[in-house]
């Protein structure tokens, strides 16, 4: 494995910039043009209106975190006097989250496997998938949990190497945030603890 700190191969930085320009342009265009939403997305939008103080109704089967993130879109919608069913401001928020997710994932891959053509091509092949180009930037309850779960796994590995209270508190906050996106994401704790104990077990056997 090449050191993550090593200088990138020639042309790689330009290829990375070009890929993110294309992905960013797609997200901007999709956020500006797509004015439809799925039912669960509309439920999140309805709860965003609740948190923005525009309604007194909360859809109880949706957890609050995504709607809290989307609340500024409701303020923008009110400021611009947009139609109550207008969802493009919400798509703009989701586009920003998605772009940040892509940047963070690329950074994580670089740190783990090195900034190489192989890791870049793997990332580039995985991103332009059917799910990305057909679903982004709709209101999704699955983007943020994916980031949180990756962060929890990285935190568990860090805690295994150097147990610290701040790492444990960060893991607790990440697990709570995931459950506030979707109830089923409470299982992240089970999976993270399982990976932690398996890593300990295999580490002891190797030793």
Biggest beta sheet summary: none
N/C terminus separation: 21 Å
What is the overall silhouette?
flat
Query: Which sequence of SSEs, written as H and E, runs from N to C?
Result: HHHHHHHHH
Q: What structural class do you assign from the helix and strand content?
A: mainly alpha
Radius of gyration, rounded?
A: 20 Å
Strand content: under 5%
**What is the tally of helical segments?**
9
User: How many strands in all?
Assistant: 0
Q: Please, what is the average pLDDT?
A: 88
Relative helix content:
over 70%
Extract low-pLDDT stretches: none
Describe the structure.
It contains 9 helices and no strands. The chain has helices at 12-33, 39-51, 65-79, 88-113, 117-126, 130-135, 143-161, 165-181, 187-206. Helix 7 runs antiparallel to helix 8 and helix 7 packs parallel to helix 9. The mean pLDDT is 88.
In short:
The chain has 207 residues and is mainly α. The protein has helices spanning 12-33, 39-51, 65-79, 88-113, 117-126, 130-135, 143-161, 165-181, 187-206.
Topology:
Blueprint lengths: L11 H22 L5 H13 L13 H15 L8 H26 L3 H10 L3 H6 L7 H19 L3 H17 L5 H20 L1
Helix pairs in contact: 1-4, 2-3, 3-4, 7-8, 7-9
């Amino acid at each position: 494995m090449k050191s993550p700190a090593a200088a990138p191969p020639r042309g790689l930085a330009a290829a990375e910039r070009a890929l993110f320009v294309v992905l960013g342009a797609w997200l901007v265009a999709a956020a500006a043009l797509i004015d439809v939403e799925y039912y669960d997305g509309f439920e999140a939008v309805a709860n965003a209106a609740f948190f923005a103080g525009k309604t007194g109704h909360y859809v109880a089967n949706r957890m609050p975190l995504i709607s809290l993130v989307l609340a500024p879109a409701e303020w923008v919608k009110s400021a611009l006097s947009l139609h109550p069913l207008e969802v493009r401001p919400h798509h703009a928020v989701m586009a920003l989250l998605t772009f940040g997710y892509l940047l963070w994932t690329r950074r994580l891959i670089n740190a783990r496997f090195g900034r190489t053509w192989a890791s870049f091509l793997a990332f580039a092949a995985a991103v332009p998938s059917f799910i990305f180009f057909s679903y982004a930037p709709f209101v999704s309850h699955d983007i943020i949990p994916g980031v949180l779960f990756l962060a929890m796994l990285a935190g568990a590995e860090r805690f295994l190497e150097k147990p610290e209270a701040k790492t444990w508190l960060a893991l607790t906050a990440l697990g709570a945030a995931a459950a506030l996106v979707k109830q089923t994401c409470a299982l992240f704790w089970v999976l993270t603890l399982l990976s932690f104990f398996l890593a300990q077990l295999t580490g002891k056997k190797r030793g």
